[in-house]
Amino acid sequence: MIWLLLNVMSVSAQENHVRALRPLEQCTLVTDMSDRIESVEWFPLRFPDGSALEYLRKMLVLPDGRFLIHHQKDVACFDAKGKYLFSMGQASTPEEGCGLIHDICMSVDQKYMYMAGRDDVVLCFDLKDGKLVKKIFLKDSERVYNYYDIAPSAEGGFFLYTPYENDKEGVVEGQKMLVQFDSTGQEVGRFIMRPDYVLPGFMISQACGNQYFVRVQGGDNAGYRVKDGILQKYCTIDFGTKGIPALYMYTNEQGGNIQSYMRADYFKMPIFFSETAGYFYFCVCGPKAKEYYFQYPRGEEKGIYWEGDQNGMVIRFWASDDEYFYAITEYGLQDYDVRTVDPLLREIMARIGLVSKEKLKGSQFLKIKFKD
């Protein structure tokens, strides 16, 4: 129970000390990134059987430079240069199977990977060799929907995120969406009230120091993070009158239509949070479903933003460490359009230089470092 008390105290103590971000007022549009990026490293991602990366879901960076990729089939481990090492959680391996893999995270000590599955079970793998260590079955957990995302808690425990059913009645009831479990699977606490519609998926993302950002929700502009296993309120993000109105999903004339919601003439909840030692980053779906990317120098209240290309390739940061932001392209760079409006993508391709299209086919791993 001490960790429940620490989480409650940490969230409460943060209330008066969080960053108040107003991106549309504080950030300046940039169309050229040539003087902002220090370096770009890239290499192709290849599986031994020649198969391609399918439906990227999550990426984790390990302390020794290796990285994990949760994709359609399983969780694959690569070394720092992109060499495939092993996979975990294959559905074809009964002892490791947990049905559909929802999400992954590293333990606080960064020695183990936790894998959240569909069937009330969390699997623990040793990151040295990818071997299954144990299965943790959830006990006496009252819920009405699958857990989607996971973050580590102290002493071998973990947080699981459930958006519940996206109905208005659920909003009125005010369920708490982040559920904390100890190392045995016993529920020990619930946090973060659900105030509005929740877009399921990519709700927790890893950043430097193995911290995990819990993204801002519809109807609530508060963002949280889990650092050293403790939940903290990190920031507020306010788009003012251009932010999507509360309960819009349930009250607009296209009610319940996700396409209409994403294309609505407002800025929606931020997603893909990431942070290095120098910069804080997040992505936002704006009017007409156009993507906007915001970046603040860490601890500062002035930043930049750039626009994505609605008709071309998308570059998002999936994870970060102290120095680098990490991106992965699922479909290769061979069809890159030099007319793209995305200044980050344009600068990445300029740094890669003139290489054969054959080398750019398939998934590419990118390491981007911004200037201090």
Please explain how this structure is put together:
The structure is a single chain. The chain is built from 6 helices and 26 strands. The strands form 6 sheets. The protein has a 5-stranded mixed beta sheet with strand order 1-19-18-17-16. The mean pLDDT is 84.
- Provide the low-confidence segments as ranges: none
- The gyration radius over C-alpha positions equals 20 Å
Overall geometry comes to globular
Give me the count of strands.
Answer: 26
The proportion of residues in beta strands is: 35-45%
Helix content: 10-25%
Please report the distance between the alpha carbons of the first and last residues. 42 Å
Helical stretch tally: 6
Identify the strand order in the major beta sheet.
1-19-18-17-16
Largest β-sheet summary:
5 strands, mixed
Mind sketching the topology for me?
Layout: H1 2-14, E1 19-21, H2 23-26, E2 27-29, E3 37-44, E4 58-61, E5 67-70, E6 75-78, E7 84-88, E8 101-106, E9 112-117, E10 121-126, E11 132-137, E12 149-152, E13 158-161, H3 168-173, E14 176-181, E15 187-193, E16 204-207, E17 211-214, E18 222-227, E19 230-237, H4 248-251, H5 258-263, E20 271-275, E21 279-285, E22 291-297, E23 303-307, E24 319-320, E25 325-329, H6 343-352, E26 364-370
What are the key terms here?
globular; single chain; five-stranded mixed sheet; 6 helices
